[in-house]
């Protein structure tokens, strides 16, 4: 038969495609090089106590991934030996266990390789997994027989009750059970996608479980304490119930209180924040004040004990009235000049002069040793300054003078500082000539008769005060003499 040229070209193309497809099938699916020549494979022997349904060409898995197949299963004097053909491109640790599992109840056995240590050297051709590191599943016939035996041991009426109760429990829950199954399937798929982290979690869970074992005593103690708390709650069940019943109205009342305080509470809290910042800054000062307060209180009470249990008429505080006037003399340096000072007889309240007015003598002078110039800086231990600004800066206190100018200008300075002055537009501090004060009323003096206690008042009338007479039954104190009659 004579073929046209186009037909020959088509047959040639089809032949090339068929050859490529056959080659791909032989290499990728049939894996003829590995089957016939062992290319990319190495052989390992597994010793088993019995075949357990394992057959040639069964799969071999490692961490859920197919890594080889069973080449043959043969008898040995001690059991069964299965020859495995494993992929050489996957390193499998040699410290492992080989288990035979079944994918279903009717067969389809496979070999599962479970490594114990991921750092062990990999398997190599000719290695033998000993019988002590292998296991096979239980016989299905034995399991079914045991199930039948167990069902026979259960009375039929009880078994019927179990079935009926199970139906009552799960009856009508088809959609929920379906979602549960679908969720389990999705969970399994996600677990398969994250197989390596999941395996790492399982392999590294031993330290966590060991910690639970090591802290078993603490866990038992916690459980015992929890049991004690729950038993107390059970004992005081009525109190707890009353608390729950009455707690709602109480919280409602508290909410109403907060609502009534809403206009002012933010302002109070803001002020408390500022107060808290001050207290935090002056924490050391507040602490010292609290420490010294009991001692100061005790010393204040001690002045009442100096003449206790004595024969003195007045039992009171024992005080010393040594005034020590002008020792040392008052400080005038740093204040307004003498011609701008107000007269002490003025009773109004003028505005404060601008600037800081305090004693500006040296910090170690004898004038006003506890004045503003020696205020300790809280944030700068060891530093003393009259203002917070000077405390927070690197500026040091500089006095106006040495403080010995007891005559002349007390603010004469050599340091170049500004001398406190009133502003030009302020009224002069020198007071105008004051009007002569009114004459005080005359002192009323009225002689009295000590025999009867009668006397003539300023209004010309005669009064009698019996406790002024000589015949008064008891001696009068000076306090009683100052008390009006009849009080």
The major beta sheet can be summarized as: 8 strands, mixed
Specify the overall morphology. elongated
N to C succession of SSEs? HHEEEEEEEEHHHHHHHHHHEEEH
Number of helices: 13
Q: Helical content, roughly?
A: 25-40%
Number of strand elements: 11
Q: Give the spatial strand order of the biggest sheet.
A: 7-1-4-3-2-6-5-8
Question: What's the pLDDT, averaged over the residues?
Answer: 79
Distance between the termini: 159 Å
Structural class: alpha/beta
- Give the strand content: 5-15%
- Radius of gyration (CA) equals 54 Å
The low-pLDDT segments are 428-434
Short description:
This protein has helices at residues 5-29, 32-37, 140-153, 156-170, 174-193, 195-203, 206-214, 216-235, 237-261, 265-281, 283-302, 388-392, 478-482, and strands at 41-48, 59-62, 65-76, 79-87, 96-104, 107-115, 128-129, 134-135, 448-449, 454-456, 462-464. It is an alpha/beta fold and 487 residues long.
């Amino acid at each position: 038969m004579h073929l046209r040229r186009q037909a020959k070209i088509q047959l040639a193309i089809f032949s090339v495609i068929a050859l490529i497809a056959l080659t791909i099938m032989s290499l990728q699916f049939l894996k003829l090089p590995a089957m016939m020549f062992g290319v990319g494979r190495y052989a390992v022997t597994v010793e088993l106590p019995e075949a357990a349904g394992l057959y040639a060409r069964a799969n071999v898995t490692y961490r859920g991934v197919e890594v080889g197949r069973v080449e043959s299963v043969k008898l040995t004097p001690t059991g069964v030996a299965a020859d495995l053909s494993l992929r050489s491109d996957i390193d499998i640790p040699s410290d492992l266990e080989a288990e035979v599992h079944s994918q279903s109840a009717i067969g389809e056995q496979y070999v599962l390789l479970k490594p114990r240590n991921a750092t062990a050297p990999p398997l190599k051709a000719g290695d033998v997994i000993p019988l002590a590191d292998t296991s096979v599943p239980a016989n299905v016939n034995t399991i079914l027989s045991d199930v039948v035996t167990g069902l026979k041991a259960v009375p039929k009426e009880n078994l019927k009750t179990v079935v009926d109760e199970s139906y009552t429990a799960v009856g009508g829950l088809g959609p929920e059970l379906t979602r549960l199954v679908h969720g389990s399937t999705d969970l399994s798929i996600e677990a398969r996608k994250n197989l390596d982290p999941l395996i790492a979690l399982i392999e590294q869970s031993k330290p966590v479980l060991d910690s639970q074992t090591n802290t078993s005593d603490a866990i038992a103690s916690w459980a015992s304490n929890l049991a004690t708390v729950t038993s107390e709650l059970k004992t005081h069940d009525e109190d707890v119930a009353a608390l729950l019943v009455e707690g709602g109205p109480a919280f409602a009342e508290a909410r109403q209180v907060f609502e009534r305080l809403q206009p002012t509470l933010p302002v109070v809290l803001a002020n408390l924040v500022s107060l808290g910042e001050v207290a935090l800054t002056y924490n050391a000062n507040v602490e010292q004040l609290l420490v010294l307060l009991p001692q100061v209180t005790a010393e204040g009470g001690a002045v009442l004990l100096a003449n206790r249990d004595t024969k003195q008429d007045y039992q009171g505080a024992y005080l010393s009235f040594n005034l020590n006037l002008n020792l040392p003399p008052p400080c005038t340096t740093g204040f307004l000049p003498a011609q701008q000072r107000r007269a002490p007889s003025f009773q109004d309240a003028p505005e404060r002069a601008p600037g800081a007015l305090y004693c500006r003598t040296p910090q170690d002078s004898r004038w006003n040793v506890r004045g503003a110039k020696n205020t300790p800086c809280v944030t700068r231990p060891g530093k003393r300054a009259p203002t917070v600004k000077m405390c927070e800066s690197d500026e040091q206190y500089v006095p106006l003078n040495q403080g010995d100018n007891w005559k002349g200008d007390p603010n004469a300075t050599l340091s170049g500082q500004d001398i406190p002055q009133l502003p030009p537009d302020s009224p002069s501090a020198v007071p105008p000539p004051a009007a002569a004060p009114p004459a005080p009323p005359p002192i009323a003096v009225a002689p009295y008769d000590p025999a009867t206690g009668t006397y003539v008042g300023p209004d010309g009338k005669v009064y009698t005060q019996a406790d002024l007479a000589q015949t008064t039954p008891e001696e009068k104190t000076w306090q009683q003499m100052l008390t009006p009659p009849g009080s």
